[in-house]
């Protein structure tokens, strides 16, 4: 119990100290403007890749492929348009 309290106290003091040593010349929202937010298309791309992979895995299962044959089939299937 004492260790948890001591650890929490140290973490809170480090967190409070980190704001003291922050660069005052840096704009407040520099981190926000550094990287643009990901586009909505990236989530749809991820969904499309997931659907493609799922379909390829289903095909490999129906063909009862195993090992190296399954790996090469999946690689070709996923890369295909």
Question: How would you sum up this structure, described in words?
Answer:
There is one protein chain. This protein is mainly alpha-helical and 81 residues long. The chain has helices at 2-20, 30-34, 40-62, 67-79. It has a domain at 41-81. Helix 3 packs antiparallel against helix 4 (67-79).
Protein topology:
Layout: H1 2-20, H2 30-34, H3 40-62, H4 67-79
Which features would summarize this protein structure in a list?
single chain; about 80 residues; mainly alpha
Q: Please compute the radius of gyration using only Cα atoms.
A: 25 Å
Helix content: over 70%
- What's the average pLDDT? 76
Looking at how many chains there are and whether they match, the oligomeric state comes to single chain
Order of helices and strands: HHHH
Runs in which pLDDT lies below 50 for 5 or more consecutive residues are: none
Quick summary of this structure?
With about 80 residues, the protein is mainly α. It is about 75% helix and about 0% strand. The protein has helices at about 1-20, 30-35, 40-60, 65-80.
């Amino acid at each position: 119990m004492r260790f948890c309290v001591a650890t929490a106290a140290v973490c809170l003091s480090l967190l409070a100290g980190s704001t003291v040593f922050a660069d005052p010349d840096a704009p407040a929202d520099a981190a926000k403007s550094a990287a643009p937010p990901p586009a909505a298309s990236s989530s749809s791309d991820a969904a499309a890749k997931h659907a493609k992979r799922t379909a390829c895995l289903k095909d490999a299962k129906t063909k009862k492929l195993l090992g190296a044959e399954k790996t090469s089939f999946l690689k070709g299937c996923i890369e295909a348009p």
